[in-house]
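[Meeting: bench + compute handoff]

Bench side (C.D.) handed over the final construct sequence. Compute side (W.E.) agreed to return the predicted structure before the next meeting so the bench team could plan truncations. Sequence as handed over:
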Amino acid sequence: MLIENEFIQSDISIHDHFNLEQKVSYFLSSDNTNDEYKIENYFFVPKNLGINSNTLTKERFYRRLHNYIRFRTPKFSLDFLISDNDNTPFKRLENIVNALLVDHKNIKLINKYDHQLKMLGSIIRTTLRDHVYFIESSESTENDRQNLCEKYIYSCKRLIEKLSHLWEKVYVPTFPEDMRQSFLWTEEAVLIFINDYSEKIIQFYKSKKNKSFENYSEVENDLLELISKNLKTRRKKINQPKPDDKESKERYLFRKRVLKKYISSVLFLDIRVRNEKPKLEYFLFAIAAGIAMILSTVLAYYFQKRFDKFSFPLIVGLGVIYMFKDRIKALIQELFKKIINKYSYDHKININVPDYNMPVGNVREYFKFIDKENLPENIKKMHSKNEMENLQRKILGENIFLYKKKITLFSSHINQAYSDINALADIDRLNIKDFLDNMDNPKKRVFVFKDDGFEWEDAGKYYFIHLITKVIAKGNESIVHYRIKMSRTGLKKVKRID
């Protein structure tokens, strides 16, 4: 379900029962120029769900939308990660550790150590995840999967060895205690990642749908041994008892969540949202007040010339002018407000690197309900392909809203500060609970005829929302149509419609 080219990658997926996620990766230019991207999301919602400009206002939509912007984790193969190449994340961290052993009070080195340590944990997690996804992919044959599983086990053992080697370097009296603790947190997180993905491989083969290769039992034993050894190492280093009771398991899940956030914190960027419209509104509203004052002054001057001083017609005329001055001002302000809403963005999000307070880009966003007549022709054409759904639209009708973004990235700033970063990830999560309020019960009883008679059976009652995403990057335009299936219990499926 990807939109993908050399500049941008966009994907729509289900984050959980009530959150629809769009993840967009922006690839940075190597020539240090500023990069600009545009994303337009057109949502087509059946009218019977009650989603319209009165029930889903700008303010409510933005409260339902959560945005995260972070660096995209650099990608490496397992082979490269465990190699002795001088450019591996392990080698970079080792060089920083060696420098700190000589000068452990150097602030610049301390910051580099913290950054590279967390980045190593993030890279290991992403590399393991991609390798396991590849094992599970439909393209892999059983022979391929066997080789990939064996490579995974060997690589995990090598990763643990490399971490142990680094621990021997930092576990000395001259190395600051808080930095040793940071290393232990990263090591523990890596052991958890290895166990999680090892369990994922085992679960994959436990599924009835997947036939295992001949010596899978040996591979499974190796995976279980790896998991067991990692658990013992973790418990020994953090002095944690075996998680047999409920409380211990809850503590483990909490610790796991915190460590995951600790490792990924190196990737997240600081975002500061600013309303784009107030300054322009104040300026234009002042102009509206000025125009109303000029008109009222001209009319007052006319009435004074036309009628005698202190005459009844003059008093009536001045009263009428006073009454209509405020109305004229309000009408002009309303006209300006419509122009502002049509041509300007709602918010500007400034993106900064937290540690350096360095700006790396900005995002402008805009939300509005629109009429079908105002849709671009290519969006109209893509939306009207399915005959049965066209019939439903004629009967029920639909409301359309647009959420669009304009992204500017300062590639030169990022390239200077981070040589290993080549992309940013922009993640939007839209909570769809407002869409569920007017839905029927998720199941209905249907009468089903069978060879030996008939039965009443439960059938799911689903609703469909359509989303058309248009992505523009460096003059290249891509459009993808998605159908989002949901019921009163939440999101069920996202399907790309070709």
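W.E. noted at the follow-up: The longest strand covers residues 34-46. C.D. will use this when planning the next construct.
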